[in-house]
Amino acid sequence: MNGFILKYDGSFEGLLCCVFEAYHQKLQILDIQPLDRAADQLFAESLEVNTDVQKASRVLKALQKKTSSQGLLRIKWTFLSELPGMEIQLFRAIRYIFASEKPVDADYSEDSILYLAQTIKKVGREKHRMEAFVRFRLTHDGIYFALIEPDFNVLPIISRHFTSRYADQEWIIYDLKRGFGLHYDKNSTQFIQLDLPENVGISGAPSEYFANEEIAFQELWQAYFNNVNIKSRVNTRLHLQHVPRRYWKYLTEKSSFA
Amino acid sequence: MDFDRIKEKLSILADAAKYDVSCSSSGSKRKNTNKGLGDSSGMGICHSYTEDGRCVSLLKILLTNHCIFDCAYCVTRKSNDIKRAAFKVQEVVDLTISFYRRNYIEGLFLSSGIFKDADTTMERLIQVAKKLREEENFNGYIHLKSIPGASDELMREAGLYADRLSVNIEIPTKSGLKLLAPDKNHEDFMKPMKKVKNEIIQYKQESRIIKSTPKYAPAGQSTQMIVGATGESDRDIMYTSNFFYKNYQMRRVYYSGYVPVANDPRLPALGTQVPVLRENRLYQTDWLMRFYGFDVREILNNDYPHLDMEIDPKLSWALRNREHFPVNINRADKSMLLRIPGVGLKSVNKILQARKFRKLNWEHLKKIGIALNRAQYFITCDSRIWEKNDYSSDRLKQIIIQNSASKFRKDTGQLSLFS
């Protein structure tokens, strides 16, 4: 019998439903692909899986019984990586978790478990970087506003960090790549979607939107950054390792104000 | 705010503070309460990195670079002809808050030249921290420099507002200090340190009984030593450091390769290269002491007063103690796994976890991420193939150096004559 390629809607629940169907219909799975990225293959049959919240939650509950909260977190973070091919790795890891008598979260000799460990390391690194590299600009309305474009979808997992840290100021962090943001209104944090004008820029302070003194603080920060460098110790390689070039345009201290 | 004037001061006083190595902002337990600003209960965050590759986590500045002392190694020394400036207390508070709100920093590291006497200076530093905590409801990280010679009373107060306190002892040996900082007294450094240590212990004991005991310097103390200014040996440095870890419960000791800032016959000449590799080896040794269960005397002693610059100190120790190897990856206990060259803390934990499921072979070890170029000569695992390890230690060292791409190894750039 040929195997199946499952297609799902790209949501986490959708992926869990793929797991449900694989077990329910005893399917041999070759790959799992989101609908918008799916490619037809000659020798495999493809099957579109509908997302059903109840089926998803059954899989989730079963997982909770077999793995620790840490293990569950790994599954969710791997999903947020959006890496091509992560679905089938997640499927294999979940199958391995279900099949094992004892907890296997830390069995790094199993390929799919190691894949999860390596992927959450990447996602975790970018989560940490976004906690560091977000640069707020103060708008006329008193909102601290930041734009980001992370490689992985880390906005959902940095929410708690910013909410607990900036509890007394209103802020928005917006992911330009994925077209959604987080908004904290001093009470709660919500996902939002905005139509952003082009000229809002990623740094600098166009006077239509930003507070009068905003640009002065950006310049102060640049002045500080330039003065803490020790010239006789310059180490560009190390610098780039810590602050990869792709993030520069979002960093006040590295960008020339647009 | 007069931004031009502030910018000028900021440039001068950030420039003068940049030789302070510590930029740590972790290890505190100050949660955001009552919807205030900031939180320093987690790990620290480096918000940026300087072009020399060091982390920028705190707004690190001097309150003033006016100083009554004339220490040879210091840019701020009285005899140095430089621009002087001083911040007002409120200016530092405003800068910290507006930088923090924009997510540029984790908090403030405030140090100062000693402008009148130790107590007046210390008092001013405390005022900044107190304002931040009490008026701005600020829960970010605050690191205050303890001014040598400051009174016990002020040191007690400082710890109530700061997360961390530090005194830089700067010169690792007493004789070196006498030579380069004749106005300063070794005892003046130790006194505030001792006071802070005792207060930390006392507050900890009290908080066990009374929950509401205020926090006292929750991230502890640190200190810093300049390396390569007075001809001290690596052993001198690390024994001093060990002394502070053992007797003062120091959280961190920092090592700062001397950057020539003065033309002084007592010091390396201007333009002398900063000993960055040596600094790196010292940090590696520090790690071995704190996290890998090494006693400093195993690494440095009368026979080996200096660290090997070509290889890391763990490999160096292993080559001198071949009788402990090879270690069996699948059976050895944790303390021995930690001593294998090329195997770090995280790899050790992965090995311990993974070997519960099956015996590990070379392929597994490679995937786990251990540095086999070094480790292979010191271990056995679930495999018939094993690396020949009956080389002499000298020969083995050469083989490992040849097979590793050290970031410090200089490309010779020499062209072959006959190519």
Automatic annotation (TrEMBL), chain A:
<dbReference type="InterPro" id="IPR025404">
    <property type="entry name" value="DUF4130"/>
</dbReference>
<feature type="domain" description="DUF4130">
    <location>
        <begin position="86"/>
        <end position="253"/>
    </location>
</feature>
<protein>
    <submittedName>
        <fullName>Domain often clustered or fused with uracil-DNA glycosylase</fullName>
    </submittedName>
</protein>
<dbReference type="Pfam" id="PF13566">
    <property type="entry name" value="DUF4130"/>
</dbReference>
<dbReference type="InterPro" id="IPR023875">
    <property type="entry name" value="DNA_repair_put"/>
</dbReference>
TrEMBL record, chain B:
<dbReference type="Pfam" id="PF04055">
    <property type="entry name" value="Radical_SAM"/>
</dbReference>
<keyword id="KW-0949">S-adenosyl-L-methionine</keyword>
<keyword id="KW-0479">Metal-binding</keyword>
<dbReference type="GO" id="GO:0046872">
    <property type="term" value="F:metal ion binding"/>
</dbReference>
<dbReference type="InterPro" id="IPR023874">
    <property type="entry name" value="DNA_rSAM_put"/>
</dbReference>
<keyword id="KW-0408">Iron</keyword>
<dbReference type="InterPro" id="IPR010994">
    <property type="entry name" value="RuvA_2-like"/>
</dbReference>
<dbReference type="GO" id="GO:0051536">
    <property type="term" value="F:iron-sulfur cluster binding"/>
</dbReference>
<dbReference type="InterPro" id="IPR007197">
    <property type="entry name" value="rSAM"/>
</dbReference>
<protein>
    <submittedName>
        <fullName>Biotin synthase related domain containing protein</fullName>
    </submittedName>
</protein>
<dbReference type="InterPro" id="IPR013785">
    <property type="entry name" value="Aldolase_TIM"/>
</dbReference>
<dbReference type="InterPro" id="IPR051675">
    <property type="entry name" value="Endo/Exo/Phosphatase_dom_1"/>
</dbReference>
<dbReference type="GO" id="GO:0003824">
    <property type="term" value="F:catalytic activity"/>
</dbReference>
<keyword id="KW-0411">Iron-sulfur</keyword>
<dbReference type="InterPro" id="IPR058240">
    <property type="entry name" value="rSAM_sf"/>
</dbReference>
